[in-house]
Amino acid sequence: MFTIAIISASIRTGRQSHRVSLFFQKMIDQSGKATAQMLDLAAYNFPLFEERLSHMQQPPEAAVDFAAKIKAADGIVIVTPEYNGGYPASLKNAIDLLYPEWKRKPVALAAVSNGQFGGSQVLTSLVFTLVKMGATLVPNMYRAGDVQDAYDETGNNTNPKAQKAAQTFLDELTWYMEAKKRMETNV
Asked: Which of 3, 84, 105, 168 is most buried (most C-beta within 10 Å)?
């Protein structure tokens, strides 16, 4: 069984995007194909980036834990809000903290906004950053618009179209995880 790490990127008070992280956690755990592991950046409380983890003399225990979970995961779902067309500093900080952990790691992106376009603008900058880090990006991306109306605080969603889109999104991530596993087995 695969392990999928879900990075809940917002650390903001009253954040809405965490609802979508919980939604994916439930879907993954109910699928029987993988287990979900929530990596909530609000709980990690990383200091501002000064140096990559691999170059730190005395790395914070939370950073070491985060790196180990990213490395151990078969795939990653990043759920990020869109702030002024970009992603939050908390996510940039967490991405930059690591380097080898991202290499060839299947990563699926979910963008969240309180508007109708579901955070489409944030995906461009996030794709660029993760490609530079060597991640393998899943082409299918999830856009959660009108998050305040579509998802409750516990991650429930009643929109059948959102359910179907989320299943397609997770199926695509699973395909990339399986492909990576086959490639590593055949090498």
From this structure: 105
The percent of residues in the chain predicted with pLDDT above 90, rounded, is 66
Distance CA 123, CA 142 (A): 10
User: Tell me: the pLDDT tens digits for 12-42?
Assistant: 998 999 999 999 999 999 998 899 999 999 9
- Cβ contact 142:170 at 8 Å: no
Q: What is the dihedral of CA 19, 22, 27, 33, to 10 degrees?
A: 150
CA dihedral 93, 134, 40, 22 (to 10 degrees): 140
Rg (CA), the chain: 16
CA separation for the pair 101, 84 (Å, rounded): 28
- Name beta bridge partners: 36: 4
Q: Are 38 and 4 in contact (CB under 8 A)?
A: no
Q: What is the pTM of this model?
A: 0.94
DSSP conformational letter for 152: -
